[in-house]
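Example for tutorial group B:
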Protein backbone atom coordinates (compact mmCIF):
# COMPACT_ATOMS: atom_id res chain seq x y z
CA UNK A 1 0.00 0.00 0.00
CA UNK A 2 2.82 2.36 0.90
CA UNK A 3 4.44 1.76 -2.51
CA UNK A 4 1.14 2.46 -4.25
CA UNK A 5 0.70 5.79 -2.43
CA UNK A 6 4.31 6.79 -3.10
CA UNK A 7 3.87 5.92 -6.78
CA UNK A 8 0.71 8.05 -6.99
CA UNK A 9 2.51 11.03 -5.40
CA UNK A 10 5.39 10.59 -7.85
CA UNK A 11 2.97 10.56 -10.78
CA UNK A 12 1.27 13.72 -9.45
CA UNK A 13 4.66 15.40 -9.13
CA UNK A 14 5.69 14.32 -12.63
CA UNK A 15 2.41 15.46 -14.18
CA UNK A 16 2.82 18.87 -12.54
CA UNK A 17 6.42 19.14 -13.75
CA UNK A 18 5.65 18.18 -17.36
CA UNK A 19 5.09 20.91 -19.94
CA UNK A 20 3.84 19.46 -23.24
CA UNK A 21 5.36 20.44 -26.57
CA UNK A 22 3.49 22.42 -29.23
CA UNK A 23 2.19 19.37 -31.08
CA UNK A 24 0.60 18.00 -27.90
CA UNK A 25 -0.90 21.42 -27.05
CA UNK A 26 -2.44 21.56 -30.55
CA UNK A 27 -4.01 18.13 -30.10
CA UNK A 28 -5.36 19.17 -26.68
CA UNK A 29 -6.82 22.35 -28.19
CA UNK A 30 -8.64 20.24 -30.80
CA UNK A 31 -10.14 18.10 -28.01
CA UNK A 32 -11.20 21.25 -26.20
CA UNK A 33 -12.83 22.77 -29.28
CA UNK A 34 -14.91 19.61 -29.80
CA UNK A 35 -15.96 19.81 -26.14
CA UNK A 36 -16.82 23.52 -26.46
CA UNK A 37 -19.06 22.92 -29.47
CA UNK A 38 -20.85 19.97 -27.81
CA UNK A 39 -21.21 21.61 -24.39
CA UNK A 40 -22.20 24.92 -25.97
CA UNK A 41 -24.96 23.23 -27.93
CA UNK A 42 -26.23 21.41 -24.85
CA UNK A 43 -26.01 24.54 -22.69
CA UNK A 44 -27.78 26.81 -25.16
CA UNK A 45 -30.38 24.18 -26.01
CA UNK A 46 -31.16 23.52 -22.35
CA UNK A 47 -31.23 27.21 -21.46
CA UNK A 48 -28.37 26.88 -18.96
CA UNK A 49 -26.05 29.00 -21.08
CA UNK A 50 -26.95 32.42 -22.36
CA UNK A 51 -24.91 35.52 -22.91
CA UNK A 52 -25.06 37.29 -19.57
CA UNK A 53 -21.80 39.05 -18.66
CA UNK A 54 -20.90 39.35 -15.01
CA UNK A 55 -21.53 42.76 -13.46
CA UNK A 56 -18.28 43.40 -11.65
CA UNK A 57 -15.30 45.67 -11.74
CA UNK A 58 -12.32 44.62 -13.86
CA UNK A 59 -10.35 43.98 -10.64
CA UNK A 60 -13.11 41.69 -9.35
CA UNK A 61 -13.06 39.73 -12.62
CA UNK A 62 -9.26 39.37 -12.45
CA UNK A 63 -9.51 38.15 -8.85
CA UNK A 64 -12.25 35.72 -9.88
CA UNK A 65 -10.03 34.41 -12.69
CA UNK A 66 -7.14 33.87 -10.26
CA UNK A 67 -9.41 32.14 -7.75
CA UNK A 68 -10.88 29.85 -10.43
CA UNK A 69 -7.39 28.93 -11.62
CA UNK A 70 -6.71 27.36 -8.24
CA UNK A 71 -10.20 26.14 -7.42
CA UNK A 72 -11.58 24.33 -9.30
CA UNK A 73 -8.99 24.08 -12.11
CA UNK A 74 -5.70 23.09 -10.46
CA UNK A 75 -7.25 21.30 -7.48
CA UNK A 76 -9.66 19.20 -9.54
CA UNK A 77 -7.09 18.36 -12.22
CA UNK A 78 -4.71 17.09 -9.56
CA UNK A 79 -7.41 15.12 -7.72
CA UNK A 80 -9.45 13.72 -10.62
CA UNK A 81 -6.75 13.31 -13.25
CA UNK A 82 -3.22 13.17 -11.83
CA UNK A 83 -4.11 11.26 -8.64
CA UNK A 84 -6.53 8.80 -10.24
CA UNK A 85 -5.32 8.20 -13.79
CA UNK A 86 -2.18 6.39 -14.84
CA UNK A 87 0.36 8.78 -16.27
CA UNK A 88 2.19 5.90 -17.89
CA UNK A 89 -0.09 3.21 -19.23
CA UNK A 90 2.61 0.58 -18.85
CA UNK A 91 1.09 -2.88 -19.03
CA UNK A 92 -2.51 -1.69 -18.71
CA UNK A 93 -4.94 -3.16 -21.19
CA UNK A 94 -7.40 -0.88 -22.94
CA UNK A 95 -10.18 -2.44 -20.87
CA UNK A 96 -8.41 -1.72 -17.59
CA UNK A 97 -7.68 1.85 -18.72
CA UNK A 98 -11.33 2.30 -19.69
CA UNK A 99 -12.48 1.09 -16.24
CA UNK A 100 -10.07 3.47 -14.46
CA UNK A 101 -11.09 6.42 -16.65
CA UNK A 102 -14.79 5.67 -16.21
CA UNK A 103 -14.40 5.47 -12.43
CA UNK A 104 -12.48 8.78 -12.38
CA UNK A 105 -15.15 10.41 -14.54
CA UNK A 106 -17.97 9.13 -12.32
CA UNK A 107 -16.19 10.49 -9.24
CA UNK A 108 -15.71 13.86 -10.95
CA UNK A 109 -19.38 14.19 -11.89
CA UNK A 110 -20.59 12.86 -8.54
CA UNK A 111 -18.39 15.38 -6.71
CA UNK A 112 -20.31 18.19 -8.40
CA UNK A 113 -23.66 16.77 -7.30
CA UNK A 114 -22.36 16.25 -3.75
CA UNK A 115 -21.01 19.80 -3.75
CA UNK A 116 -24.44 21.09 -4.81
CA UNK A 117 -26.29 19.05 -2.20
CA UNK A 118 -24.11 19.40 0.85
CA UNK A 119 -21.66 22.29 0.52
CA UNK A 120 -22.68 25.02 -1.90
CA UNK A 121 -26.42 24.31 -1.84
CA UNK A 122 -26.67 25.37 -5.47
CA UNK A 123 -29.43 23.78 -7.56
CA UNK A 124 -27.52 24.02 -10.86
CA UNK A 125 -25.06 21.38 -9.61
CA UNK A 126 -27.94 18.90 -9.60
CA UNK A 127 -29.30 19.86 -13.02
CA UNK A 128 -28.96 16.88 -15.42
CA UNK A 129 -27.86 19.17 -18.29
CA UNK A 130 -25.19 20.74 -16.09
CA UNK A 131 -24.00 17.29 -15.01
CA UNK A 132 -23.88 16.18 -18.65
CA UNK A 133 -21.72 19.19 -19.50
CA UNK A 134 -19.53 18.44 -16.46
CA UNK A 135 -19.18 14.86 -17.70
CA UNK A 136 -18.15 16.13 -21.13
CA UNK A 137 -15.58 18.45 -19.53
CA UNK A 138 -14.32 15.59 -17.36
CA UNK A 139 -14.04 13.24 -20.35
CA UNK A 140 -12.24 15.95 -22.32
CA UNK A 141 -9.81 16.57 -19.46
CA UNK A 142 -9.19 12.81 -19.23
CA UNK A 143 -8.36 12.66 -22.95
CA UNK A 144 -6.15 15.72 -22.56
CA UNK A 145 -4.35 14.20 -19.55
CA UNK A 146 -3.78 10.85 -21.24
CA UNK A 147 -2.47 12.66 -24.32
CA UNK A 148 -0.25 15.20 -22.56
CA UNK A 149 0.72 13.31 -19.38
CA UNK A 150 0.54 16.77 -17.76
CA UNK A 151 -2.05 18.57 -15.66
CA UNK A 152 -1.45 21.91 -17.39
CA UNK A 153 -3.50 21.55 -20.60
CA UNK A 154 -6.40 20.20 -18.51
CA UNK A 155 -6.01 23.06 -16.05
CA UNK A 156 -6.26 25.55 -18.90
CA UNK A 157 -9.33 23.79 -20.36
CA UNK A 158 -11.04 23.51 -16.98
CA UNK A 159 -10.20 27.09 -16.00
CA UNK A 160 -11.33 28.61 -19.30
CA UNK A 161 -14.60 26.69 -19.19
CA UNK A 162 -15.54 27.77 -15.67
CA UNK A 163 -14.32 31.35 -16.18
CA UNK A 164 -16.27 31.80 -19.42
CA UNK A 165 -19.35 30.21 -17.86
CA UNK A 166 -19.32 32.46 -14.79
CA UNK A 167 -18.08 35.67 -16.43
CA UNK A 168 -20.02 35.55 -19.70
CA UNK A 169 -22.63 32.80 -19.90
CA UNK A 170 -24.87 33.22 -16.87
CA UNK A 171 -22.96 31.08 -14.40
CA UNK A 172 -22.89 33.87 -11.85
CA UNK A 173 -26.71 33.96 -11.79
CA UNK A 174 -26.99 30.17 -11.57
CA UNK A 175 -24.49 29.96 -8.73
CA UNK A 176 -26.44 32.53 -6.70
CA UNK A 177 -29.62 30.49 -6.73
CA UNK A 178 -30.04 28.09 -3.88
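The residue assignment follows.
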Amino acid sequence: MKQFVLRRFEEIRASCATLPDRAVWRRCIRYYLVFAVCAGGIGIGSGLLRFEPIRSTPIAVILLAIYLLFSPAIVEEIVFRAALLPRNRGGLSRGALLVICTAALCLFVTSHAINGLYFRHVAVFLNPWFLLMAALLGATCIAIYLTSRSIWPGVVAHWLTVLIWIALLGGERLLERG
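Residues 84 and 145 are 11 Å apart (CA to CA). Compare this with the pattern of hydrophobic and polar residues in the output above.
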